[in-house]
């Protein structure tokens, strides 16, 4: 009598088991507003922007298609080309220096130094400031009348010249200095978290084998921190593409258009020049740049993990 009862109980349990679509039903219902927001606002807004980038919309959007005329005009505009060159220069140098300085600071902090919490707070504090505040502060610091140049000249070096924000050839480097000051602390914290995740036995084994510390970092530690580096690269790259407020606060795109960037180009054409079609075309190119960054990252992170 025991066996039939057990079989019927098991069959009853199988019948009562909910389908996989009904599991965690409450959490799925709670996520509906977020899903709708993502679909309607982000996906819908993206499709709407791309669609109207093929129109000659001016002050108001209108479905008057002109093909790829807006894109041809975009890539033949000197201001857009200058903004792309500035973004490329700023982006490459920002990636190199942010990763290098951030990793070196993290390696130093990982040596269990005294007052580590104090130093970590000092390095991370600039990231808590907005780009507007950072831009204004560095605009004052780099001002030749009362900034670094004035201080050095007051010490006797009257021929010293350092005014990057007023030189069209090097103005983008003045913006880069402010960006590194603000963002390097975050990179340091990410790298430090990755270093603290390295097993202590690895360091002990390298010391026993007599491997120099720099070789341990390059050939052992850094390859083990690949996920941290990939995530940091994506965070930095996404910030590079949408840089706007730091440029506005420091130079407003000047001198002339020497420090213009794509995000400022989009804003100016949409709200000042009242040329929505041109602004939509420029923003679509920015979206394409972000997709070029995010898609390979998603493939490396999730595609490789799925194959594994």
Automatic annotation (TrEMBL):
Residues 84-299 form the ABC transmembrane type-1 domain. The keyword Phosphoprotein does not apply. It is found in: Cell membrane. It is a multi-pass membrane protein. PROSITE patterns: ABC_TM1. Coiled coil: none annotated. GO terms for biological process: transmembrane transport. One of its GO terms (cellular component) is plasma membrane. It holds the Pfam family BPD_transp_1. The chain crosses the membrane at residues 29-54, 87-109, 121-141, 170-195, 216-241, 280-300. Its main location: membrane. This is Sugar ABC transporter permease. The lineage of its organism: Bacteria, Pseudomonadati, Pseudomonadota, Alphaproteobacteria, Hyphomicrobiales.
